[in-house]
Amino acid sequence: MFTGIIEHTGKITEISPLKGGLEITVASELVSTLEIDDSIAINGVCHTIVRKTDETFTIQSVEETLRKTAIGKLKEGVVINLEDSLTLEKKLDGHIVQGHVDTTGEVLSVENEGADWLIRIGFDSSFAHYLVPRGSIAVDGISLTIARLEMDNFTVAIIPYTWDHTNMNQYKKGTLVNLEFDVLGKYVLRAIETGFAAKPADS
Predict the structure, then answer these.
(1) Nearest to 171, CA basis, from 158, 182, 153
(2) Closest CA to 152 of 129, 174, 168
(3) Backbone phi, then psi, for 38, in 5-degree steps?
(4) For residues 4 and 140, is the Cβ–Cβ distance under 8 A?
């Protein structure tokens, strides 16, 4: 479990083919706090650390992950968002993020507006029921609030700190991003769809 508050970034140093997936090595100052088998979110996608050195850690991304996320589009040398898993000592400053990406979106525009940047992201309209105005969404693992919402796109306003300390300053029209919708909203919709007042099965 994560919060969507990005405190570290990393740079991909190597990408190697793995049967049915990819093995990705990342350099980051965060590595000193990590251990093998730890969970870590890479651009919002939960992975397990399988190897580490003093300067890098390595994860494996399987076919299912590559199919549902933008991880397979990453290249050596790019900067990525990193978040260590949530602990009881860590503040829940963002919102509950599982690291289980629902779909990908495409950056439609990036506009500077005063001190902020407005980023408009398109998505498949079949997911529209998961989003609400001023609701939470994780974009590449970053906890954000939806500022404007349409049936097939939404806009988020990015403050200078987030712009400077995440990979969002690399976004341009056409960039593919990972989207995870608010899990609390998904549970509510699931309850409605399955009939939350349904009687339990007889014991």
Answers:
(1) 158
(2) 129
(3) -65, 150
(4) no
Please indicate, yes or no, whether the overall pTM of this predicted structure exceeds 0.85.
Answer: yes
Residue 188 φ/ψ, nearest 5 degrees: -65, -45
SS3 content of the chain, % helix, strand, coil (to 5): 20, 45, 35
**List of E strands, the chain:** 8-18, 21-27, 39-42, 45-52, 56-62, 79-84, 103-113, 116-122, 136-139, 142-149, 153-158, 176-181
Q: Which amino acid is at 87?
A: T
Give the mean pLDDT per block of 10 residues along the chain (203 residues).
92 94 97 95 97 97 95 97 82 83 97 93 96 95 96 96 96 98 89 72 55
- What does the DSSP 8-state code read for residue 70? S
Q: What's the pLDDT score for residue 202?
A: 58
Token representation of residue 74: 């990453």
Q: Structure tokens of 28?
A: 């980051």
